[in-house]
Design a protein that fits this description.
The protein is 5% helix and 56% strand. By secondary structure, the protein is mainly beta. The strands form seven sheets. A four-stranded antiparallel sheet has the order 1-28-27-26.
């Protein structure tokens, strides 16, 4: 989807308006640190200091692109109040959650979906886990403040490989499935590229000058995979990780906290000033922006509708925005 064609999408631009979801009175004003959309798109699952929560979403009868909250389905207390990341397994049958207390403990849990029955949980002394992703239905990768990437068996949570290379905590990870590459990034200002064939360090990417806060990958139909990295240096850098080349970068007015590809050559960046910026990644320029109601942004996810983003932040709300609407409102 090009920027020009996006601006001509009058139907979506006029019908998919920004919608604010107040999660509930029990979680209001409690920061929502991460959110995941269920495989069928009917539920929003999120974590905060109140634990894990699920709300059911329903498409509008007049417009199937607009989703509104139907009811607060359930809350689930977890072994730690500091929860940082969650994601669904590739088969959509399990939910992965991680967190922990800095310098005290690490927590990792795998739960059935949708019943949220604990299948395996692990709490150990150490340092907090900040990120965890599914490598496959049978493997999980984690990263945290202890600087190591760990590969675990998803069924037993047994550690099978420890990948050491970062000199400070790991904040984010991403996967390039076609090339079997795992990318980690962190507080040491760097990205590390790992081979999942032999679990070796392939290369290090060190152009950021402040901690890296988020990663997002894009696999084009033609050409090399692209990974975007967001940093406290206020830049987003675009890399071809299979060859280790940085192809371009953009500097934003604020620190990007979460980034997400919306379509080919379009990236959304939610920042610590509560602004969402839409970026043309070929021209490396901002082509639209919106002030969000989430406050300091923690996470962005692709929503159930096309070109929809679901965003969480410090104000304890979930906000849904339409990228075509933002672009149509921009000069």
């Amino acid at each position: 989807m090009s920027i020009a064609s996006t601006k001509r999408m009058n139907l979506l631009a006029s019908s998919l308006a920004a919608i604010l979801f107040v999660t509930s009175s029990s979680t209001a004003q409690v920061p929502i640190t991460d959110i995941a959309i269920s495989p069928k798109g009917e539920s929003y699952v999120f974590v905060s200091q109140k634990g894990l929560s699920v709300v059911e979403a329903k498409a509008s009868s007049s417009n199937q692109s607009v989703f509104t909250i139907v009811k607060h389905a359930k809350n689930k207390e977890l072994p730690t109040s500091n929860l940082h990341a969650l994601s669904f397994s590739p088969d959509g049958k399990r939910l992965l959650v991680c967190g922990g207390r800095p310098s005290e403990s690490a927590f990792l849990g795998v739960y059935s979906w949708p019943r949220l029955v604990p299948l395996e949980t692990l709490t150990i002394a150490g340092d907090s886990l900040l990120t965890a992703i599914w490598v496959s239905d049978s493997q999980i990768a984690t990263g945290g403040l202890d600087t190591n990437v760990r590969i675990l068996d998803a069924n037993s949570l047994t550690v099978t490989h420890v990948l050491g290379g970062h000199s400070n905590g790991i904040t984010s990870m991403a996967l390039i499935k076609p090339s079997r590459l795992l990318i980690s990034a962190g507080l040491d200002n760097s990205l590390r590229i790992w081979s999942l064939d032999d679990y070796s360090l392939v290369r290090s990417l060190n152009q950021h000058i402040h901690p890296v806060t988020a990663l997002a990958t894009f696999i084009p139909e033609q050409g090399l995979p692209i990974v975007a990295s967001a940093s406290d240096d206020r830049t987003i850098r675009f890399w071809q990780p299979t060859i280790g080349r940085m192809v371009r970068f953009i500097k934003l007015p604020a620190k990007p906290q979460s980034i997400n590809w919306v379509g080919e050559n379009i990236l959304a960046a939610a920042c610590d000033n509560g602004q969402l910026y839409i970026i043309d990644t070929l021209k490396v320029e901002t082509v639209g922006s919106r002030q969000l109601k989430t406050g300091w942004c923690y996470d962005t996810e692709r929503g159930p509708a096309k070109y929809q983003l679901v965003i969480t932040g410090a104000n304890g709300v979930i906000e849904s925005v339409s990228v075509p609407t933002i672009l149509s409102e921009s000069p």
